[in-house]
Design a protein that fits this description.
Blueprint lengths: L15 H10 L11 H17 L6 E4 L6 H12 L3 E5 L6 H9 L6 E5 L6 H13 L1 E6 L6 E6 L4 E6 L7 H4 L4 E4 L5 H14 L6 H9 L5 H18 L6 H10 L9 H13 L7 H8 L3 H14 L3 E4 L2 E4 L1 H6 L6 E2 L3 E3 L2 E3 L3 E2 L7
Parallel strand pairs: 1-6, 1-7, 2-3, 3-6
Antiparallel strand pairs: 4-5, 8-9, 10-13, 11-12
Helix pairs in contact: 4-5, 7-8, 7-9, 8-10, 9-10, 11-12, 12-13
């Protein structure tokens, strides 16, 4: 699977700086968490009921694109329950023994956060079935015909799984979660609140218009909003008086090549090649990737999802095509469509006229 580089300013992947800053910016309780109203309300009911019963809540699965707050919600779950939290990830658990070591060291009521749970190895995944359902694991001692399974009882715990690809989870694992919450992209108004809150914690003076400018370019993702805020802060402190206004935020993000809709250099390069070189398509993925000097996986998994979500690009059986919004966004005029040509075998579909009739 292709991993998106964290070098892009508008990537939702977290780098070292993001992780350090997020630790300070994360809300500690559900009431402080901005956005995701439906998930927050449902999760609040689950946690309140568990506290009244005095038992561990059902296992929780949080799905959705990166950067929307899945890790933050897992920490809030532990804080609301007054329980410790253990954090690990699917790629770190490659053997059943790795998982057994973690599970056997859990205390009663502890929260185990398993990020990217869909990337866990199959043997560990099968061990997790029994641990989630019966709070028990079978530890295999020895090999071959002499191998012995020793049952190990586990204290009640709550597993919080996070995944960016819920469809890759096998049904037996997905069915063992008592609550599943899907995280949605944020609306600009919600991101403005995120930017205001982060600016207060980072001691950045920002006006409402400045927050709105940053929110509008954040691709619906709080992590990106916080990253853009830090870069705008740097620009405001170095070239101005430190106050972030709409004009200063726009100037700063223009320097970092993030346009008004949140497109960066790679996104615009893909659209530009599709429009200028191929007349809006359709064009194959590999051909488009060569045109922008990137790997096909980079174009398909890094640039395309956002362009499709923004309605600027469409995937068709014949290849990638640009929408009318793409032409408008880059300030270009779509090519003139010639009428169908009638032949003895029927009509030939209209083709875009990429060059003027005089050949100039």
């Amino acid at each position: 699977m292709y991993e998106e580089s964290a070098d892009r300013l508008v990537t939702a992947a977290a780098d070292g700086e993001d992780q350090a800053v997020e630790a300070a910016l994360r809300p500690k309780l559900l009431d402080e968490f901005i956005g995701q109203e439906r998930v927050r309300e449902q999760l609040s009911l689950v946690l309140q009921a568990a506290r009244k019963r005095g038992s561990a809540p059902d296992h929780v699965l949080l799905s959705g694109p990166p950067g929307l707050g899945k890790t933050t919600l897992s920490m809030i779950i532990a804080a609301e329950l007054g329980a410790p939290i253990r954090i690990t990830s699917g790629p770190a658990i490659q053997h059943a023994g790795d998982l057994a070591a973690i599970l056997s060291s859990l205390t009663e009521g502890e929260v185990l956060f398993l990020d990217e749970i869909h990337r866990m190895s199959r043997p560990a995944e099968e061990m997790l079935y029994m641990a989630m359902e019966d709070f028990r694991v079978d530890v295999i001692v020895g090999k071959g015909p002499g191998a012995t399974a020793i049952p190990l009882e586990l204290p009640p715990f709550t597993l919080v799984g996070a995944t960016t690809r819920a469809g890759l989870l096998p049904p037996p694992l997905r069915d063992r979660f008592g609550f599943t919450g899907h995280m949605e992209f944020y609306a600009p108004v919600e991101l403005q609140r995120v930017v205001h809150r982060s600016a207060t914690l980072l001691d950045v003076e920002i006006d409402p218009a400045g927050a709105a400018e940053i929110a509008g370019r954040s691709r619906g993702t709080p992590r990106i909003a916080n990253r853009l805020l830090r870069r705008v802060r740097d620009y405001a402190q170095v070239r101005h008086d430190g106050v972030v206004t709409a004009e200063i935020a726009g100037q700063a993000l223009d320097v970092y090549e993030v346009d008004a809709r949140g497109l960066d250099r790679l996104d615009r390069a893909v659209l530009d090649a599709l429009l200028r070189l191929f007349g809006g398509g359709p064009v194959g993925l590999s051909t488009l990737a060569v045109a922008v000097g990137e790997e096909a996986e980079t174009v398909e998994e890094v640039a395309e999802p956002f362009l499709v979500r923004e309605g600027l690009l469409a995937r068709t059986p014949r290849g990638r095509i640009a929408t009318a919004a793409a032409w408008q966004h880059l300030g270009l005029t779509p090519p003139v469509q010639t009428p169908p040509v009638q032949t003895t075998r029927g009509s030939v579909p209209p083709q875009p006229e990429l060059f003027p009739a005089d050949g100039s």
